[in-house]
Amino acid sequence: MREKLFRYLQSGRHIAIVVLGGWMVVGLVLLLFSPYRIHDWVEENRYVLMWSEIVVLLCIAVLFANDAADAHHLIDQLSEAEKREMQSSVDMYNFYDEKGELKLSVKPEKLYYLEAADNYVKIHYLGNGKMEKLMIRNTLKNIEWRFRDKGLVRCHRSFIVNLNQVQVLRRHEGEVLLDFGEDKVPPIPVSKGYGEKMFAHFAK
């Protein structure tokens, strides 16, 4: 929004709109409430003033139409960028540390879950036929935000899971667990605050 406003101010359209709008107000005031001293002049030039008001109104309409076209163009650009991001996320999950350095790219079918570890995150994934983990300096909150609506979902204060890999949602001794159907991958607990979200997802 700030960048868009900056570009708009740079274009100078706001100056034109303010000037034209000011003239339109002045013209309306002269036509409707002309002062006594210039009443005769206004009467003599009434048609000129009326036509100038129409021209000004058309100019303002054109300027606003251009703004609307720019806004639609910006929305289209953002939509295309979002589509590209979503398509790339289907191919690979890219994990960055807090400095923005790429630490791991993993295919969705190889990623199982992420675990909080103080100021770090442990990424549990399948590599070379066995479970591996990589620790990066970041937070689950940041990763949850980055991968929202892309299959990685928070289920616990300390865990994010790849829902596409979850095979079973079950209750065990009063606890809700997400099971990946793999002996080498432990079931992940679901805390009460995320229980309804998990049940709603698997009920679809």
Describe this structure in words.
The chain has 2 domains: 2-90; 93-203, LytTr DNA-binding domain (OB fold (Dihydrolipoamide Acetyltransferase, E2P), Beta Barrel). Helices cover 50% and strands 26% of the residues. It has 6 helices and 10 strands, in the order ααααβββββαβββββα. Strands 5-4-3-7-6 form a 5-stranded antiparallel beta sheet. Helix 2 runs antiparallel to helix 4 (46-91).
Could you give a quick summary of the protein structure above?
This protein has 204 residues and is of the alpha+beta class. The chain is built from six helices and ten strands, in the order ααααβββββαβββββα.
Shape: elongated
Provide mean pLDDT, rounded: 77
How far apart are the first and last residues' alpha carbons, in Å?
36 Å
Name of the CATH class of the largest domain = Mainly Beta
How many extended strands? Answer: 10
How many distinct helices?
6
Q: Compute the number of structural domains.
A: 2
- Strand order, main sheet: write it out: 5-4-3-7-6
Q: Roughly how many Å is the radius of gyration?
A: 30 Å
At the fold tier of CATH, the topology name of the largest domain is OB fold (Dihydrolipoamide Acetyltransferase, E2P)
Residues in helix, % = 40-55%
Order of helices and strands: HHHHEEEEEHEEEEEH
What percentage of amino acids are in beta strands?
25-35%
